[in-house]
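User: Hi! I'm a student and our assignment asks us to look at how structure tokens line up with a sequence. Could you show me two examples?

Assistant: Happy to help. In each example below, the sequence comes first and the structure tokens follow. Example one:
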Amino acid sequence: MVSLRRRPLEQDVTLPDGRVVRVRVGVPDDSYIAKRDLDTVDVEVYGDGEHLAVVNTVLGARQVNEARELLAEIVAGLESGELKPTAGALEPLADRLR
């Protein structure tokens, strides 16, 4: 079965200011807990060699279709400039059930 544990979703996005960031939706790496024991799904945004935002979602590791929908929504918002690459901007999307 497909899971966000083994295959996180990732996409590069060009922001209106020309910067490129990467959005990742998947089970986070945790040095204390094995991935098979985690069901938490995070959204992470990387750019300029650092984390720009990290938020927990209401999704579980097997909700791949819902994660794809979330990723598409975030990518569209970042590309258009409607969303900023910050945790505060992403949190309302991450907290919404799909």
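Example two works the same way, sequence first and then tokens:
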Amino acid sequence: MVDTATIPIVKRAWPAMGSVVSVHVHDRFESDSERVAVDGIIDEVSAEIERLEAMFSTFRPMSIVSRIGRGDMHLLDAPREVTDVLDACAWLELASSGAFSAWRGDRLDPAGFVKGWAVERASRLLDRAGLRHWMVSLGGDMQFGDPPDEGWRVGLADPLVPGRVARGLTVGRGAVATSGTAARGLHIDDPRTGRAATAWASVTVVGPSLTWADAFATTAFVLGAEGPAWVENFPGHAVIAIDRDGRIVG
């Protein structure tokens, strides 16, 4: 969660991708018309996330990913976004020795990569519009623009005690992503075994890009004890992991 002591000038939220997207914009505006224009930009962010969800959702039978998974569409006929995502997933599977995969058994499901990637991609619309001080969140995974003061204040939820903050962070432009058991229990499967990963209660990754912070958090959660060190091989990334006894590493 983000400290809301500084009330954003514009704040919007809506359901997407099985969770809630939230956009905060802290820029100061000279007129009401500038503020109204920001609502239009956020509409574009919403439309982009919806477009990507329609392309990648495994819950929509006619999504591109569902059609590829059934064999109704060849990957070479898919939009560039799909081939880019699946190429990235294939690289991550190789880099993690199989701890990450876009496949669940025989079912194509790149959700572990797509959510962070989609939010980061949509958030670029805010930068392109000239906004500076903004945050876009999906289910608690956050991509930040420049902070409005000394930094964005983020509270990491305690995965073992509902409503408790395990640790506070102050971050600048970049991303924070957490994979864990707080919201959905043991739901992250190890592709190598087909069983739920159980070593950690949560893994949080801080880095420049939500695409990779989110994917690395999921991968580190599956990797278990070696996960934090694996993430820290990638420059600019830091890890905070909480084990199932509540001990914090990082």
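Here is something you could point out in your write-up. The domain at 10-249 is CATH 3.10.520.10 (T-fold).
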